[in-house]
Write a structure and sequence with these properties.
Its EC number is 2.4.1.83. This protein has 257 residues and is of the alpha/beta class. Helices cover 44% and strands 17% of the residues.
Length: 257
């Protein structure tokens, strides 16, 4: 019996990940040797990551590469990957970091839920069984608190809307205007999850272990927090006003005023 996950693409964006790339692609290929292909989206890495990606692709037909002209950001890399995957006919498209923070050995947890009917599966740190490894307490507190605020502001009912380990059904991605995604820091992850909530999608969170990178430096700086939370606050206020408007209109119709 065929399953959606039999045709899965894992997108791995890269910028200066030459040391990590062979490790993460090797782990994906070992964990899922049959049903998963890999798309490396490289932003013209000065360290030669793109050239190495081409070498890996030449040796393995399950690995593909997109080269972008410059450092266009994580959102742009994923959008390019989404479009490529949709054009090639993949049924499930996944996000995964290149630095090993997302364990390929746990990918089956996401894909199993897709096969059971989910439209979007999020590998979550803040559900029962989820955890982070090698994070300082203040980073965990910032991330956990930020996610609590985001869920409360939007009324989304999700614990980890900033998480970047995800699996989407193609039918859900096809509903989104990818050009409209917010590019403010990592807020596009929240944007995609929020669009899925508004679309009435079947969204599920599965516990994963998020491990801080060992090789290389994080591309994330602290400035995204303020920008992201301000953007979410605007979305939340707009959503509440829309709800209030609908309630007011309903009451007027009911009572004839």
């Amino acid at each position: 019996m065929a399953h959606p996950s039999d045709r899965t693409l894992v997108i791995i964006p890269t910028f200066n990940e030459k040391e990590n790339l062979p490790l993460i692609t090797g782990r994906v290929r070992t964990a899922e040797p049959e049903r998963v292909d890999i798309l490396v989206v490289d932003d013209n890495s000065p360290d030669g990551t793109g050239d190495l990606a081409d070498e890996l692709a030449a040796e393995d037909g399950h690995i593909h590469v997109i080269h972008r002209a410059g450092k266009g950001g994580l959102c742009g890399a994923y959008v390019a990957g989404f479009r490529w995957g949709l054009e090639k006919g993949y049924e499930v498209i996944c996000e995964m970091d290149a630095d090993g923070s997302h364990a390929p050995e746990q990918l089956h947890l996401l894909l199993d839920q897709i096969d059971r009917g989910a439209d979007l599966v999020i590998g979550a740190r803040y559900v029962r069984g989820g955890r982070t490894v090698n994070w300082p307490w203040y980073r965990w507190l910032l991330s956990k608190g930020g996610n609590m605020y985001i869920s409360l502001a939007l009324g989304a009912g999700l614990s980890d809307m900033t998480a970047g380990y995800r699996a989407y059904r193609r039918e859900l991605l096809e509903q989104f205007d990818l050009d409209e995604l917010s590019g403010a820091g990592y807020i596009f992850q929240v944007d995609l999850a929020w669009r899925a909530v508004q679309a009435g999608a079947d969204i599920r969170e599965v516990p994963i272990t998020f491990t801080e990178r060992v090789i290389g430096e994080s591309k994330l700086d602290g400035s995204f927090v303020k920008d992201s939370l301000l953007e979410v606050t605007r979305w939340g206020l707009r959503h509440r006003l829309e709800q209030l408007g609908k309630l007011t209109a309903s009451l007027r119709r009911r009572f004839g005023r």
